[in-house]
Amino acid sequence: MSRNIRVVGIVLLAMFLALFGSSTYIQFVQEPELVADGRNTRTLLASYEVQRGPILVDGNPIAYSEADGSSYMYQRVYTDGEVYAPITGYYSANQGATQLEEAMNAELSGTADSQFFTSLRALFTGEEPAGAAIETTINPAAQQAAWDALEGRPGAVFAYNPETGAIYAMASTPSYDPNTLAMHDDATVIENYNALINDPSNPMINRAIGGNMNPPGSVFKLVVAAAALEEGIVTADSELDNPESWTPPGTTKPVYNPNHGQKCGSGEKTTLHIALQYSCNIPFAQLAVQLGDEKIRAMAEAFGFNSSVSIPMESDPSVYPTEDLDDAFTAQTGFGQFEVRTTPLQMAMVAGTIANGGDMIQPTLIEQIMTPSLQVVQGPQVESMGTVISQETATALTSMMQDSVANGVASNAQIAGVDVAGKTGTAENGEGEPYSLWFTGFAELDGQQVAVAVVLEDGGGMGQSGTGNGLAATIGQQVIKAVLEL
């Protein structure tokens, strides 16, 4: 009998310890994550007792809370909802929160550590509790230019200052109206939410920083060129072989330049400068094989591939394959094909790092955080993510990209009186599938800098007839002009 009692006692003690351990882990370790989770409706409902802080663009609210007389007390309102949805996201009592509404929830709801004394003072002064205001870095003219230029076609634009990291534009289309998810009619909100997630155009995906990413095509040549220059394999003017076609080792499938069956320039030899200027595939496929996939991957990861970026929303990591590749597949990655996938955020960071002399700056949407009494809690934050390439390599790439715009295949990015540097891409998605169209580049005028990346899915509505220069470069040009106030 005593043995059975001991066994029961040991089992009960083990069960108690397991329960104690799990509850302790949840309360003390997982607590911050659970509170911040946008699906935690209990936290959301409690937060409606506080007037949620506004999200601002150039001092004007694009998201704010107003009293509505219901049991929720406050209704979230979005101005220009579709234009700014990739930035604000939505805040819903039964569908959680996304984008800045989720990432900055503690500040907007007044529960951040930095707002402790403000909340404490409100208890003694009788002030209505309120969250902090988030002033974004968004340039309203650039955001509107990006939205207008996309014309609702599946695609996205990301533009930022490569010297400070301030994000000027982040547009994604098709989009949606967050107001349809912020109302307090639960049945209607659920109906609206289900309609959005079942929409085949995927309007709730922020294509600028994630989603079903696209192959970069020729814009990835910037990464390969950077790796080749850094490794000392070539200089900008080194002579390279210039065949009409080239078959990589290990395959019978030849690589051609975009102008199928033609050389890269008129001579028997070409150069890296000419190859980038005219976006020739063969030299980059050959350089990729010469470099090997490990060195290309290392350069891609130095630029940010295979890692998430917090802006403060977490981006989906752009992808360079992590498995060992044979020469045939490595050759395809040399011009941004095979399993390479990326976002406009990532390609803007590649261009921006080149513009900034090789130093990569963390992109951010946050200009400053202010208490309800307009006291600044946090000002602009400039954070270096490290030196990716040398100043010499950045200068060489800038010259090539500027020639690509001035005299090459990115001509639609030209702006009178401005030296625009750019690179286009027209990426294949499979047999008979529409292309993904790309542009990335940068410019500076009177001390104002901007780097931009554009992607259009489904060939921009033109199937396999659209090109990166024909559509994406034009959009990039319009966004650059808006930032530079031209």
From TrEMBL:
<dbReference type="InterPro" id="IPR054120">
    <property type="entry name" value="PBPA_dimer"/>
</dbReference>
<dbReference type="InterPro" id="IPR001460">
    <property type="entry name" value="PCN-bd_Tpept"/>
</dbReference>
<dbReference type="Pfam" id="PF21922">
    <property type="entry name" value="PBP_dimer_2"/>
</dbReference>
<feature type="domain" description="Penicillin binding protein A dimerisation">
    <location>
        <begin position="52"/>
        <end position="134"/>
    </location>
</feature>
<dbReference type="InterPro" id="IPR012338">
    <property type="entry name" value="Beta-lactam/transpept-like"/>
</dbReference>
<protein>
    <submittedName>
        <fullName>Penicillin-binding protein 2</fullName>
    </submittedName>
</protein>
<feature type="domain" description="Penicillin-binding protein transpeptidase">
    <location>
        <begin position="155"/>
        <end position="477"/>
    </location>
</feature>
<dbReference type="InterPro" id="IPR050515">
    <property type="entry name" value="Beta-lactam/transpept"/>
</dbReference>
<dbReference type="Pfam" id="PF00905">
    <property type="entry name" value="Transpeptidase"/>
</dbReference>
